[in-house]
Amino acid sequence: MNVATANPAGRGSRSVSHSRPSAGLDGSRSAVAIGIQQALRDLRAKVGFACPVRIGLHTAVANRRGSDYSGKGVHVAARVAALAEGGEILASVETIAAAGKVATSEPRTATVKGVSEPVTYCAITWS
Question: Which of 18, 20, 47, 97 has its Cβ near the most Cβ atoms within 10 Å?
Fold first, then answer.
């Protein structure tokens, strides 16, 4: 399992890269994105506060330089995350297709800065 962090555009943004598209989104309780949101929900219930986190997932080939990644796919992932509300997980349709069976909303399409084609994405049902 290869995991690395990247620095996409946007303060406070972090990306995680993985060699298997379904590794971060497999529909199980142990899935990374779902696990993050559930842990934050539980912390909120226990102590009364946890920062709302927006998660965006996109599957694409990226260029690696040291521990950083760059390329259109990284840019699209950051834009998908920017579309999310706090506590929401959004994933591009490419990621949904690669992940297999996952509960989602109906697909939505948005035009995002720096990407010539519209991006189609779904909200992941996690709660």
Answer: 18
Nearest-angstrom CA–CA distance, 10 and 32 = 21
User: Rounded to an integer, what distance in angstroms lies between the CA atom of residue 33 and that of residue 50?
Assistant: 16
Pairing of strands 119-123, 89-92: antiparallel
Q: What percent of the chain has pLDDT over 70?
A: 76
Q: What is the DSSP string of 22-36?
A: GGG--SSTT-HHHHH
CATH T-level topology, domain 3-123: Alpha-Beta Plaits (3.30.70)
Residue type, 86: G
In this structure, of 42-46, 55-59, 122-126, the range with the lowest mean pLDDT score is 55-59
